[in-house]
Amino acid sequence: MFTIKTMNAISPVGLAKLPKNLFEVDADTDTPDGILVRSADLLNTTFPENLLAIARAGAGVNNIPLDRCSEQGIVVFNTPGANANAVAELVMGMLIAGSRNVPAAAQWAQTLAGDPALSKSVEKGKKQFVGNEIQGKTLGVIGLGAIGSRVANRAIAMGMEVYGYDPYISIDAAWNLSSQVHHCVNLNDMLPLCDYLTIHVPYLPTTRGTINAQTLALCKDGVKVLNYARGELVNNEAILEALETGKVAAYMTDFPCEELLGKPGVLCTPHLGASTPEAEDNCAVMAAQELSDYLKNGNITHS
Ligand code: MLT
């Protein structure tokens, strides 16, 4: 019998992949054989000696101390691609919402309740919140994995001209990428072409601050930047300065922080990328299967 500790609420659809005759799921155990985790921060957690594996129901593993796991012989799994559709759909939603001033306009419209001159106020709002169309605009995608490729394909379907750059993989290895995506070998060549820039790389020491004062200086004036990957990939100070000068027209991010909140041009959501029941089920199923396959058979997939 293997004991599995859940460190976050894990979808029951995933837990059902752990047969009860072989696995006992217990959120309170101190001696698990395996851990199932979503976003809980394990960086300072002491692991028991018998722990064999940790499975993250999500793509990023920056909440797990990988070096310490290697030293202790603990195998770490993640679920690449399992929530990619949810993230890509949010990115497309925010691309359009930010371009058409939807959040600000919707918030403003709420204040019209009880307005005796409602139709006049609506006319005023119609002028105040004029937006831009995305069809015919250029989008630069940094990172062409499961999420970046989906974003690129969806943007092409909506009539955008899409450029793609990946620091690690060749264009041929990109996930199901449309042949209409223009491949850029260097990031610096892509930046001046983009009306919109979106980043989809993992957070690693080498990708920290990929979008910074130098890279922003190469962008078009008025570029709109989207970050639904990790907050650390973008230097907030540089973004705020660029928003002030007009170099950046809008920053849409899933990673709110004190520096950004309430700043003009910043549109924050509370890490909603993978927050759909569909994505939670997909991630939990993949993570539970990886854990079960390793503990039962010693097989390693997606680690
Ligand atoms: C991921 O790394 O896949 C997401 O950040 C998962 C999450 O929202 O928990």
What is this structure, in a nutshell?
With 303 residues, this protein is an alpha/beta fold. The protein contains 10 helices and 12 strands. Bound molecules: D-malate (MLT).
Give the amount of beta strand, in percent: 15-25%
Name of the top-level CATH class of the largest domain? Alpha Beta
Q: Which residue ranges are poorly predicted, with pLDDT under 50 across at least 5 consecutive positions?
A: none
Helix content: 25-40%
CATH topology description of the largest domain: Rossmann fold
Euclidean distance between termini CA atoms = 23 Å
CATH architecture title of the largest domain: 3-Layer(aba) Sandwich
Order of helices and strands: EHEEEHEHHHEHEEHEHEHEEH
Average predicted local confidence, pLDDT: 96
Helix and strand content put the structural class at alpha/beta
- Give the number of helices: 10
Number of strands: 12
Structure description:
The protein is α/β, with parallel strands linked by helices and 303 residues long. It folds into two domains: 2-82 and 277-297, Rossmann fold (3-Layer(aba) Sandwich); 84-268, 3-Layer(aba) Sandwich (Rossmann fold), CATH 3.40.50.720. The chain is 33% helix and 16% strand. It has a seven-stranded parallel beta sheet. Helix 3 (84-99) crosses helix 6 (146-157). The radius of gyration is 22 Å and the shape is globular. The mean pLDDT is 96. The structure holds D-malate. D-malate binds at residues 38-39, 58-60, 83, 271, 273-274.
